[in-house]
Specification:
The chain is α+β, with helices and mostly antiparallel strands. About 40% of the residues lie in helices and about 20% in strands. The protein contains 12 helices and 8 strands. A 5-stranded mixed β-sheet has the order 1-2-8-5-3. Strands 4-7-6 form a 3-stranded antiparallel β-sheet. Helix 6 crosses helix 10. The longest helix has 15 residues. The radius of gyration is 18 Å and the shape is globular. The model has no long low-confidence stretch (mean pLDDT about 85).
Length: about 250
């Protein structure tokens, strides 16, 4: 992958590399020059570089010091399945499909062992910048090679691409999931799996200044990437209008 003065390489090891962009305005150039011919990568945006690459359920269990990971996860899914009765007309179609149940819950606030990714780096950027962050200096977009997940971590990680059409949010976000069967976060998995340098890059971290939030959101809105398009429901429309109110000239 090429390297330009508009961005720097801050770290390169364990098949991971970190780029820091000096400004959001170089993001499109970065994608064109670094990713255009690498179609196997998928993207995830996070509002703070302090956050680990781990699912919400994993974070919750760690915070609560719950060590019975598998049993707690099974009980949680069973509770979700039971509580869905009468609330969706697709339940009978996915009742025995664990991945579809988790995917449905993921986009409706359930703590799950899944991480959202997108085939679009611009959708990932929107999710990195939408929420107001903590005092982190950078927003982060991660990109991981699907082949590496499927080949090197297939016993504990799984790429899941739902084929059912009941989750319109997922469709609008060009979304897919990485499902965890481990409580170890992704960067540590890479460090443990690839301790030696071999010149291969399969996990990429892109840091963008937090101060560029307004510029990013205004740019993406011109590209028709906003809550109104990514969340095709009343909640999405409400969040879109709230953001329009809060961002000058949005």
């Amino acid at each position: 992958m090429g390297r330009k003065s508009k961005w720097t390489v801050d770290d390169e090891q364990h098949q991971m590399i970190t780029f820091t962009l000096s400004s959001w305005k170089y993001f499109h150039d970065f994608i064109v020059e670094e990713f255009l011919d690498y179609r196997n990568y998928v993207f995830r945006g996070q509002a703070s570089e302090k956050w680990l690459l781990e699912p919400s359920l994993n974070r919750f269990l760690k915070d609560k010091d719950i060590i019975e990971y598998n049993r707690t996860r099974e009980q949680h899914l069973k509770s979700f399945k039971f509580s869905l009765r009468g609330r969706t007309n697709v339940l009978k179609n996915i009742l025995n499909d664990e991945d579809e149940l988790w995917a449905l819950g993921q986009h409706h606030g359930l703590l799950t062992p899944m991480l959202d990714f997108s085939f679009s780096p611009y959708v990932a950027a929107y999710f990195a910048f939408y929420d107001k962050a903590d005092n982190s200096e950078f927003r982060v977009i991660y990109s991981v090679q699907q082949y590496t997940i499927e080949k090197d971590f297939n016993s504990i990680l799984k790429i899941y691409k739902p084929y059912t059409d009941h989750n319109q949010r997922l469709l609008n976000q060009s979304g897919l999931f990485v499902k965890y069967d481990t409580n170890i976060h992704l960067e540590k998995l890479f460090k443990d799996k690839f301790p030696e340098e071999n010149g291969t890059i399969t996990l990429i971290k892109i840091r963008i200044p937090n101060n560029d939030r307004e510029l990013c959101l205004r740019t993406l809105n011109r590209m028709n990437i906003n809550h109104n398009t990514l969340f095709p429901d009343i909640e999405g429309t409400s969040n879109y209008c709230n953001l329009e109110l809060s961002i000058k000239n949005y």
